[in-house]
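Data card: per-record layout.
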Amino acid sequence: MSEQLDKPNGLQAVLALPGFRLLWLGQIFSQLADKFYIVLMVFLIAQSWAQGTGMENGPLADAAEMIRGRGMGSGATFSVGSNGEDAQLITLLATGIYAANTLPAMVLGSLAGAWADRWPKRAVMVSSNGLRALLALAVPLMLIPGPSWLGLSWGYWGLLVLTFLESCLTQFFAPAEQATIPLLVERPLLLPANSLYTATTMAATIVGYAIGEPVLQLMRQTLAHIGIAGGEFALVPLAYGLAAVVLLFVRPEEQPRNSDGVSVWSDIREGLVFLRERASVRGAVLHLVVLYSLLAALYVLSISLASRVEGLGPTKFGTLLAMSGLGLALGALGVAQLGHHFNRRLLASGGLGTMGFCLVLLAQLRPALGPTLLLCGLLGIGAALLGIPAQTTIQEDTPEHLRGKVFGLQNNLVNIALSLPMVLAGTLVGNFGLKPVLLLLALVVFGGVALERPWQRG
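The structure for this 458-residue chain is written out next.
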């Protein structure tokens, strides 16, 4: 008994594995680079195009002028170059960046996952990060003056192309990374390993966007002191490059595979057949789709929710999202240490129930800052209870030769789940108000608890 107590468990046991430590470090660098890239794009738009530089006559220039004329709201007027005007123009141009970053995630995941199953995982992870570093090195070239199209200089369209290619490479990296975890971690430790993976993802999202602009400025100023201009362009390729170097030393034990002339589309069909036949994996993927659909809807609803809370207002909706992210990270750490003591079905039901409970209270209680932040944090904890066991089940119950295909399909579905609810939630709130939509989401979540049947064993 004492030997069992002394034996490392949870996060301690996972971090004691050298291979997983390297994979985790590579994940940190890669995910921070993803966030820094988006921050750099917005930074460049603000510096080079928001003031009208590089904008000529054309449909997009006309759209920008319409935004300039409208200002921040009805009846508001701004002089040329005002902060509100620039913010709206930055938003317009940044939307193109977001679209170029999201499109591959919605359509390419299955195809990339199938290819990731055919190639060595380490090679996929290293090459995808290395190629992203090279693409990031091409970003400064987009600032060279040149021809315009639809009212915008060629450089902006070049950034859209680079962003699209960066996102395509990410679609190869993601399933390879997820499929490598079970190759480095024994089955009993998959739950804490996925908990750490999830906590790191949330932390990288919060920290990456928060420190991205200050770090870019710091790189710019530091390198300027030694006579190197454009230091801000070094951050993203440096982060991707460090990820590639670290992942070079990861040694997953996997069997070499040959496609034997089978088409990629046949591989994708094989993944779909497996999902149809393996109920546990299909249910886990469904849990993730429900979870990310809910989180995407809450991303939109947080703006309306923050506008009701005294001391916040609609522009500070990020505070609510940060609290949910913090709750998810804390929940992930809790699942890592204690999750193996509980049945997966109970964890999923507890997560759904917690989120439903929080949604009802957010709809019914008077919107005060403290209780709202607390409920957002609890909602994040519920998300961890649902999502992490689901991801672990997929890894445990999927054969090694199918993991890339299944993770590719999973990423496809999750990215669709992250996109469509944003439109639906905004439309519903506009037509019916925030409270009915929150209660509707709670009803859907409680229906998920009933379908999960936590009173049954297994």
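Known properties of this structure: The two ends are 27 Å apart (CA to CA). Residues 13-190+212-253 form a domain with the Growth Hormone; Chain: A; fold (CATH 1.20.1250).

See the next section for split statistics.
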